[in-house]
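Tokens for chain A. Residues wanted.
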């Protein structure tokens, strides 16, 4: 920003753009034309990579299905209430998804349109912000790294708000730079204040970016000199704090007090007072260093990750120094304060440091690394210096390019449940039972619902199914089960849907889950439930299968005199068919053995325990 002021005060014929002077290069000029050409090429490549994944239209996987089921059946007004399937999607992001569904219909691509647009818009925003802070060469390298990043490409096609977080952060940074350029311009202040107001209900980590903006504005000489500059800063900050308080009370308070989520992310909190801090710090380093450029895995063998991480971190540290020299404290604040704020929130266990939740900071991490690459031109000898930045940038981009090229030929596929669900619908007899494992519930609910006339009661039942208020060991007792309707079985037409009951004790992501009952006892209990349905044939749909649980259940079916056949195996999905002898089966599933549907579409007071089983 100092450079911008100096350039503006120079005579017209002698002005030198701040973008043409790379920080730390000791005055060596660079070609802005080359930077523009490189940026334009990779802008096109980045959009093409994102459109390739979008066109593939991969089936929704577990986490996306939770979000879809929490949004699609609901109205805009409903989405301001606690969401179904225990989701906490930012309300404006949920509205954008809902608007896309109303416009294009219910489907994987329609649901991902907001994320796709965010991923494409992020690239030109990064070019603008990067050019202002780090110069055109750094901006061009940053655009290339972001365009090729498997991490950013993937989340540009994910029904989650993480890519929107990064785009919102870049948009806020761009508006802040415009204000710093002309703090007397009332329209620029209004645009920034309005964007901050919209960002808070659109992006959960937007608060960290707004904190960075506050620091940047307060330390910008142009703002301090402006007649009402500080008044604008105070007014904007006050309004943003008030809005955040409202967003927190309305939408985030229940998430902050969710014991399950706290346990789930326990390994991602950098609380130095808790045992295992060095291990968590090492894990956070791995989550923050490589994923912005290369994703959490696949780009490098395990043995090379530490070395590459150290190189990336070294370049990033060098780049932060470059950005400080070029853009002063305001520019430094925009790049570093969001990350520091997230680390501080993690230290008090209010924000987890994992690659996806930190995607809002990924563009700035990439910009810092790109700035470090350009800084190497200042130490390279002779003619090599002019191209050193491009050479280092190309070396950094090469691994991401290899992974992205591989994904063009073979797009990412997490779980492929639609073919198996379609097979069941085509081949199951009308009076067969379908046994749905805990993690298969969202896929079964989404892909078997007629979205032109969704059955709200059935969706609510599938959301709540599996919840129990009786002790787990008592639940396993056949004598107890014979005295009550099965709340996890429901008639559908002439058939029956049975949701797996899998009692677990939740530990943490590192320890995963431990059964509250021995697997053999649990499997015998579930087999009795299937036989109690009175159906000769039972199809088991298992998504993200637990091999231990599924194999034990198959053994229990055979021990009870039934047969078990593996019908199909897909990506993250298995289909089994169990057949029981007619002798000993109930003649039909009556209202005495099947629980009535639950009312409503909201979450359950026992959502934490239910989601724990979902994560098995």
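Reply:
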């Amino acid at each position: 920003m100092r450079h911008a002021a100096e350039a503006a005060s120079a005579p017209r014929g002698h002005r030198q753009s701040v973008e043409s002077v790379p920080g730390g290069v000791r005055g060596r000029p660079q070609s802005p034309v080359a930077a523009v050409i490189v940026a334009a090429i990779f802008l096109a490549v980045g959009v093409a990579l994102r459109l390739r994944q979008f066109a593939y239209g991969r089936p929704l996987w577990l986490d996306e299905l939770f979000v879809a089921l929490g949004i699609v059946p609901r109205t805009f007004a409903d989405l301001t209430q606690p969401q179904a399937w225990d989701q906490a999607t930012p309300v404006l992001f949920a509205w954008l998804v809902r608007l896309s569904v109303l416009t294009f219909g219910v489907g994987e691509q329609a649901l991902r349109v907001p994320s796709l647009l965010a991923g494409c818009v992020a690239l030109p925003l990064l070019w603008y912000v990067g050019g202002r802070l780090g110069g055109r060469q750094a901006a061009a390298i940053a655009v290339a790294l972001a365009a090729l990043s498997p991490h950013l490409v993937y989340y540009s096609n994910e029904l989650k708000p993480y890519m929107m977080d990064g785009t919102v952060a870049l948009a806020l940074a761009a508006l802040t730079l415009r204000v710093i350029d002309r703090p007397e311009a009332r329209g620029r202040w209004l645009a920034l204040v309005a964007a901050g107001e919209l960002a808070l209900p659109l992006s959960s980590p937007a608060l960290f970016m707004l904190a960075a903006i506050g620091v940047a504005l307060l330390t910008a000489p142009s703002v301090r000199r402006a007649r009402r500059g500080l008044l604008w800063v105070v007014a904007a900050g006050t309004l943003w704090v008030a809005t955040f308080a409202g967003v927190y009370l309305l939408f985030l308070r229940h998430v902050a007090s969710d014991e399950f989520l706290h346990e789930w992310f326990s390994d991602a909190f950098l609380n130095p007072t808790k045992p295992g801090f060095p291990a968590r710090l090492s894990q956070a380093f791995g989550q923050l260093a490589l994923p912005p450029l290369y994703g959490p895995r696949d780009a490098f063998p395990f043995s090379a990750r530490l070395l590459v991480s150290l190189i990336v971190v070294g370049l990033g540290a060098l780049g932060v120094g470059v950005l400080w020299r070029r853009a002063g404290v305001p520019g430094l604040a925009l790049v570093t304060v969001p990350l520091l704020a997230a680390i501080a929130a993690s230290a008090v266990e209010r924000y987890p440091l994992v690659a996806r939740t930190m995607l809002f900071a990924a563009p700035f991490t990439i910009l810092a690394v790109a700035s470090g690459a350009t800084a190497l031109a200042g130490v390279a000898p002779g003619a090599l210096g002019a191209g050193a930045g491009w050479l280092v940038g190309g070396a950094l981009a090469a691994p991401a390019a290899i992974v992205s090229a591989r994904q063009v030929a073979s797009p990412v596929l997490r779980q492929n449940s639609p073919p198996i669900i379609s097979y069941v619908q085509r081949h199951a007899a009308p009076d067969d039972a379908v046994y749905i494992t805990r993690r298969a519930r969202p896929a079964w609910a989404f892909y078997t619902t007629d979205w032109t006339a969704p059955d709200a009661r059935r969706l609510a039942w599938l959301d709540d199914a599996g919840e129990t208020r009786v002790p787990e060991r008592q639940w396993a007792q056949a004598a107890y089960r014979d005295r009550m309707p099965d709340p996890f079985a429901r008639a559908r037409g002439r058939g029956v849907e049975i949701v797996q009951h899998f009692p677990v004790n939740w530990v943490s992501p590192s320890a995963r889950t431990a059964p509250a009952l021995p697997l053999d006892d649990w499997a015998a209990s579930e087999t009795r439930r299937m036989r109690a349905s009175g159906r000769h044939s039972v199809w088991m749909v298992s998504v993200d299968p637990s091999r231990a649980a599924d194999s034990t259940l198959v053994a229990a079916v055979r021990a009870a005199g039934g047969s078990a056949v593996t019908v199909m195996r897909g990506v993250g999905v298995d289909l089994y068919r169990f057949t029981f002898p007619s002798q000993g089966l109930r003649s039909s599933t009556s209202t005495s053995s099947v629980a009535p549907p639950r009312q409503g579409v909201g979450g359950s007071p026992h959502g934490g325990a239910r989601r724990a089983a979902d994560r098995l």
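Residues 418-614 form one domain. DSSP finds 26 helices and eight strands in the chain.
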